[in-house]
From TrEMBL:
This is ABC transporter ATP-binding protein. One of its GO terms (cellular component) is plasma membrane. PROSITE patterns: ABC_TM1F, ABC_TRANSPORTER_1, ABC_TRANSPORTER_2. Residues 338-577 form the ABC transporter domain. InterPro entries: AAA+_ATPase, ABC1_TM_dom, ABC1_TM_sf, ABC_transporter-like_ATP-bd, ABC_transporter-like_CS, P-loop_NTPase, Type_1_exporter. It is a multi-pass membrane protein. Signal peptide: none annotated. PANTHER family: ATP-BINDING CASSETTE SUB-FAMILY B MEMBER 10, MITOCHONDRIAL, ATP-DEPENDENT PERMEASE MDL1, MITOCHONDRIAL. GO terms for molecular function: ABC-type oligopeptide transporter activity; ATP binding; ATP hydrolysis activity. Gene3D superfamilies: ABC transporter type 1, transmembrane domain, P-loop containing nucleotide triphosphate hydrolases.
Amino acid sequence: MYKNFRRLLVIYKGARGPFIVSQTFLAFSVLLNLAIVALNGTLVNDGVQQGNIEVVISTAVWMIGLTLIQTIFALGNSLYAVLFAEGTANFLRVGTYRKIQTLSFGNLDRFRTSDLLVRLTSDINNVKQAVLYGILLLFQAPFMIVMAVAMAIFLLPSLLWLMIVIMVVVSVVLFFLLRGVQQMFVARQQALDGVNNVLQEALAGVRVVKAFVRERFEMQRFAKVSNTWLDAALSPAYRMALFVPSLQLIVYTGTAALYYFGGQGVFGGTTNLGEIVVFSNVLSMVVGPMAMLAFIIPFLESGEASCGRVFEILDEEAEIQDRSTAKPVDVSNIKGRIVFENASFGYRDRAGKTTGLVLEKINLTIEPGQTIGFLGATGSGKSTLVNLIPRFYDVLEGKVTIDGINVCDLPQRQLHQIVGMALQESVLFSGTVRANILFSRPDLDDDEIVAAAQAADADSFVSRIPEQYDAPVSRRGTNFSGGQRQRLAIARALASRPPIVILDDSTSALDMATEARVQEAVQGLMSSSTKLYVAQRISTVLTADKIVLLEHGRQVAVGTHAELIQTSPLYREIYESQLGKLDEQPERIASPLAGQSMGGTA
Ligand SMILES: Nc1ncnc2c1ncn2[C@@H]1O[C@H](COP(=O)(O)OP(=O)(O)OP(=O)(O)O)[C@@H](O)[C@H]1O
Ligand SMILES: [Mg+2]
């Protein structure tokens, strides 16, 4: 039972201190509570009934004093319980976040962002709540029940039957009241997940929603999940509303019965009023904890389920990990020779199964300093192919090597220093322009930043902003245009001058003239690096040392522009569809790089 919670208690060592302290405070608090209840007997029997005002006063003073001490213990218990619960939540939050950072592209493909968000926030909150109620009540309640029953036996064994009857009635009422409540709580959590999923998606895509005039649709979609949540939240709430009144009814009826039967004992002289008063207190003492116990079960159940969902992330094994055989290399000695040998790859589905090959038997040799262009229809596998070089995904068959070393045998940290990459989607982070360019190497100086920005043609617009490189970047870089974002992303990839640079469709938002400027500057700054351009526009790769043409994951042609125009009908078709019929403009290639030396060894 509660295997996730037990596991949590084992792995979260920091929990033990607050746990033990809070339970110690708790035990003292319960014992003092019982002592205060017992003093009621002295107050009635020796004080009120004997007409002894001194006993009344001294007992009352004792009761107040003990209550104060008991309050301190109860306070200590609560504070340490909160410390324990918040500490647990923090432990899970930080651990989960850290885990997500270590996950590979493949793992992240299988978790939706909204799903991760829900687990990091509302699931962890559920765990916290369950842990808090658990630590406050789980031990306290049985302890109080046992002590109360023991006291009843000690005080008035003749009326023990009344206590047992009340306990049975309470159990039956609680059973019916709480039956099905747990499912209601689960449904409520699922409804909340639904709300979060829609919210996350709609807020992330709010501009697209506006652009396509889908506001009404989105509002309806949200209203639907929000109403589901409302219904799901109301049904357990209605049921819980019955909780306190029904228990009060039982306690008051029980108290009346106590005075009826106990009163007869007082008249008959077999018992005294003080014992009846204490017994009445003990009666309420036993009902409260029983109710608490029943009440926390749904929270424990939902917390346990949430804890399981958090452990799912913590248990996820990063697909890409450093092998034990991985040997560090001197990054500055890397020349940047890339070889694909019979490399095949396919993405996995949610169940972790490979669905089909997206790349088939790629064989390609790229010499240090060369410029390579990758062309192909959308979905042909260009991004997938270049993503194999920094090992964002591992090949299924074959291998990819850098300077003869299998990328799987390089420590990832070094591999990512060797390969500088501008991903197809240029995401910037909130902060400054400088911080974004320095993302991979915080130790670079201003000259290196400016050189990278100049090569990416970002300096031209950054230097026009009053704050220049300290200009603020908003979340995802939305205060920059698409082309400016791309150029900052290129600057980020170039900043540390890696031996291999990959620009995945990174100039697609630039006009031809800007693209030409960027390419020329990149060739200059990164002359000795191996440069890989993925492109949709043929003009981007026209003068590359080698153009690789992909179709449905296969490399259908490799060569220079001049070679491919002769040998590949597909290449010729793409060329003519983008730049016009060859026989109508044979004299010059309309390339942004025409006339430039591409550098490197062809
Ligand atoms: N993360 C992923 N999970 C599953 N399938 C994917 C994933 N990324 C890409 N694919 C699939 O792999 C194939 C190749 O995609 P890839 O992104 O490599 O194409 P591309 O040539 O870069 O296209 P584009 O020019 O549009 O960027 C596509 O069919 C795509 O649906
Ligand atoms: Mg792509």
